Amino acid sequence: MQKILKKTIMFGFLLSLSGCVGAMPEYKSSKSEFIIFKTPTIKYADQGFVSKADNETKVEIYSSGQALMRLRILKDQVCMSSFACMSKQEFNKKILASSNYPNTLLENIFNAKPIYNGKNLKKQNGGFSQNIATIKYKVVGKNISFIDSSNGVKIVVKGI
């Protein structure tokens, strides 16, 4: 009985270390940033890192050296430290409070790319801005700001 309990505990521990989708990719870049990630269900604001690999963007927010939030944006899903992995559509609905967002929204924001296929794109010195209904999205230099006033979503990344 005790052997079975030990094996069950060890299996659970190893499973928890494996994460959502298996092995971690090799990140090609990692930048220290000040990150605000505020939605109707989640509120984080502190120093963190945005790391990029070929098929993944990872966002981590820390406070006092402890990870508050880890977000892995993959091709077809989003994995968050306090939630199980979910499809991008499900993440948009449950976490970002809108099923109307495109599946590429989150990765485009953290990769400083236009959203909604470049709708209402206005190029500015050192970046661009987009105003789409209640959404104000701006990328200038190392700074990114996405604010959707109707859904209460604010994602800000300030480069250091």
How would you sum up this structure, described in words?
There is one protein chain. The chain has one domain. An eleven-stranded antiparallel sheet has the order 6-5-4-3-2-1-11-10-9-8-7. The chain starts with a helix and ends with a strand. The relative contact order is 0.14. The chain is built from three helices and eleven strands. By secondary structure, the chain is an alpha+beta fold.
From the structure above, extract its key features.
eleven-stranded antiparallel β-sheet; single chain; 19% helix; 160 residues
What secondary-structure arrangement, pairings included, does this model have?
Elements: H1 2-18, E1 29-38, E2 43-53, E3 56-63, E4 66-73, E5 77-80, E6 83-87, H2 88-94, H3 105-110, E7 121-124, E8 127-132, E9 135-140, E10 143-148, E11 153-159
Antiparallel strand pairs: 1-2, 1-11, 2-3, 3-4, 4-5, 5-6, 7-8, 8-9, 9-10, 10-11
Using the CA coordinates, give the radius of gyration: 18 Å
Helix/strand structural class: alpha+beta
Could you give the order of strands across the largest sheet? 6-5-4-3-2-1-11-10-9-8-7
Please report the total strand number as a whole number.
11
* Helix fraction bin: 10-25%
Shape: globular
* Beta-strand content estimate: over 45%
Averaging pLDDT over every residue, what do you get? 84
How many individual domains?
1
Low-confidence spans: 1-22
Distance between the termini: 54 Å
Give a short account of the largest sheet.
11 strands, antiparallel
Count of alpha and pi helical runs: 3
